Amino acid sequence: MTEAVQADLEAIYQFLGCRTPEAWIKSAMENLPILLIDHAQCEKKAASTAMSMMYRYVDKPELLTKMSKLAREELVHFDQVLKIMKQRNIEYGHLSAARYAGGLHQHIRKQDPGMLIDKLIIGAFVEARSCERFAALLPVLDDELAAFYRSLLKSEARHFRDYLKLADLYTDESLVDRVQYFREIENLLIESDDTEFRFHSGVLQ
């Protein structure tokens, strides 16, 4: 792992405030097909979220540029996950959504500019947690998957930074309090008991 990626991870660890529990990592190794299927869905959803923001906020050129690049990268990652799944004879199908995204999105303010800022902060948390989980899985994955997840660290860390930079750009107030508000919600979702395993799930009961 390069020094730059390690520095990115340190910033992400500080931003998130908690690490993935060991129990989740154990569940990931016991549910590898589900991990890959849900990972693919997460990449597709991330592209969809970026496109949705591009349609809604057409008057924000910086956002359009960042989200356009992000959407393209996430779809490339989606294709890469599908390729790995095909090699392992894992069929791609529908999975119910984790409670994670919904648990964060239900706290979004209803009016702009607050709604946009909250969406961007949540985007930063989703990308940061994805990056943190890729890193947490590296020591326990087989060589092929470990190499693939290691290759995603740089782009996911950049997406995290891009979301935060956009949030800072479009607000006149400090982000500290709002980031802390969502940090507490996100940490609870990650550390509390969950009923089903997903890429962003909590700890299985």
List keywords for this structure.
single chain, 205 residues, mainly alpha, Ferritin, 8 helices, 2 strands, 2% strand
Fold and architecture overview:
- It is a single chain.
- By secondary structure, the chain is mainly alpha-helical.
- It has one domain (3-12, 22-90, 100-196): Ferritin, core subunit, four-helix bundle (Ferritin, Up-down Bundle).
- 73% of the residues lie in helices and 2% in strands.
- It has eight helices and two strands, in the order ααααααααββ.
- The protein has helices at residues 3-16, 22-30, 32-56, 61-87, 99-105, 114-137, 143-169, 176-191, and strands spanning 193-194, 203-204.
- It has a two-stranded parallel sheet.
- The longest helix has 27 residues, at 61-87.
- The mean pLDDT is 96.
- InterPro entries: Ferritin-like (IPR012347), Ferritin-like_SF (IPR009078), tRNA-Hydrxlase_MiaE (IPR010386).
- Its EC number is 1.-.-.-.
- It comes from Gynuella sunshinyii YC6258.
- This is Hydroxylase for synthesis of 2-methylthio-cis-ribozeatin in tRNA.
- GO terms for molecular function: tRNA 2-(methylsulfanyl)-N(6)-isopentenyladenosine(37) hydroxylase activity.
